[in-house]
Write a sequence for this structure.
């Protein structure tokens, strides 16, 4: 008799128990797949940050401004390849709840510094030539249904125009695509000159600067020269690598990695208890059968492998279905009109999930398998009489 056939028959002898066990495993791995995709998406801001890109901020904090005159002084620093400045606009579309990341920038230098946001030469030149033009990332454009050529009104919850209005009209000049599937395309960018000439306060100031260096090896020297240049000035600077800046920005929300990891680990712990107890109960119910099998010549090692195989099959079956379901959930989330980084369930997630499935199967199956291995024939058969 084939061992695989016996394993299958033992698994399916109580269909309801099998279903509930597989379902519990399915839920755990669906949670794992979905939350891991979220974790990788949020980490992508750090992972995809350019090694040669630095961020220059006001030393007090991110919300304090810098004089626009700083830009040319930073541009003159040795080993600075390109520098752009950005002002947070506080933009929203139609409803104050529809807020998004919107910045006033100098377009010519912006495209040099953030070259992972792809734009055609034709659209780039058209944007440069239209002071009321903006470019929007693919994610934000899809969220609000914007298309190239649209004329749209955008409000600011911070700034007002000189005529008292808080509404600016813009022409959508291009939709920015990401060089990488997880490049953040939730941003909107428009001419600083248009902003500076029409707003009622805050003129000739910038929020922060982003720059590219000629070589990442020169980053430390550039950081030191910039911060020394503005030391003891009314607006001192703090220059940091983009990876550090993005990580600090994400951590303002909270320790997402800790939160997501804690949820996943809690789900796995519950599954360990449920599946482990289920396997132990199943083997206990089959004590007499195991005794008979050993009497018929089944070796203890063979029975050990069969019991362990049951546990592994449950983990693999529930886990595979769970990760597939998380893939479907990720697709739905990505297509929803919400501002989130693109979620991807890549090969790395599948590999990690498979390792967890094997680990779960081994951990939940090792105790009942050892019990079956050590079971004495006389003891097993004597229990059958009770």
């Amino acid at each position: 008799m084939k061992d695989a056939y016996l394993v299958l028959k033992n698994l399916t002898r109580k269909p309801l128990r099998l279903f509930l066990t597989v379902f519990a495993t399915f839920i755990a791995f669906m949670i794992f797949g979905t939350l891991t995709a979220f974790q990788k998406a949020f980490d992508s801001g750090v992972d995809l940050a350019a090694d040669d890109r630095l961020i220059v901020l006001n030393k007090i904090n991110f919300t304090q401004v810098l004089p626009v005159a700083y830009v040319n002084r930073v541009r003159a620093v040795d080993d600075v390849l390109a520098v752009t400045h950005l002002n947070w606009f506080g933009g929203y579309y139609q409803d104050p709840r529809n807020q998004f990341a919107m910045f006033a920038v100098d377009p010519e230098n912006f495209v040099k510094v953030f070259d992972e946001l792809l734009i055609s030469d034709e659209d780039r030149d058209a944007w440069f030539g239209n002071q009321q033009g903006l470019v929007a990332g693919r994610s934000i454009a899809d969220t609000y249904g914007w298309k190239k050529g649209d004329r749209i009104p955008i409000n600011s919850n911070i700034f007002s125009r000189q005529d008292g209005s808080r509404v600016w009209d813009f022409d959508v000049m291009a939709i920015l695509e990401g060089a990488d599937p997880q490049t953040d395309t939730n941003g909107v960018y428009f001419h600083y000159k248009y902003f500076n000439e029409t707003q009622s306060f805050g003129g000739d100031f910038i929020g922060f600067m982003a720059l590219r260096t000629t070589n990442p090896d020169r980053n430390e020297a550039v950081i030191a020269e910039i911060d020394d240049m503005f030391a003891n000035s009314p607006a001192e600077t703090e220059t940091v690598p983009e990876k550090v800046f993005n990580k600090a920005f994400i951590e303002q929300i909270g320790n997402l990695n800790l939160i997501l990891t804690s949820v996943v680990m809690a789900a796995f712990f519950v599954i360990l208890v449920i599946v482990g107890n289920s396997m132990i109960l199943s083997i206990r119910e089959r004590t007499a059968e195991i005794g008979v099998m050993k009497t018929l010549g089944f070796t203890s090692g063979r029975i050990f492998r069969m019991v362990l195989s049951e546990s592994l099959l449950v983990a693999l079956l529930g886990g595979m279905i769970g990760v597939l379901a998380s893939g479907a959930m990720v697709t739905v989330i990505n297509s929803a009109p919400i501002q989130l980084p693109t979620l991807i369930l890549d090969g790395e997630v599948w590999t990690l999930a498979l390792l967890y499935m094997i680990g779960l199967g081994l951990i939940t199956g090792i105790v009942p398998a050892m019990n079956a291995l050590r079971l004495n024939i006389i003891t097993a058969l004597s229990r059958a009489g009770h």
Remarks:
- The chain has a mean pLDDT of 86.
- Residues 186 and 225 are 33 Å apart (CA to CA).
- The first strand starts at residue 53 and ends at 58.
- DSSP finds 14 helices and 13 strands in the chain.
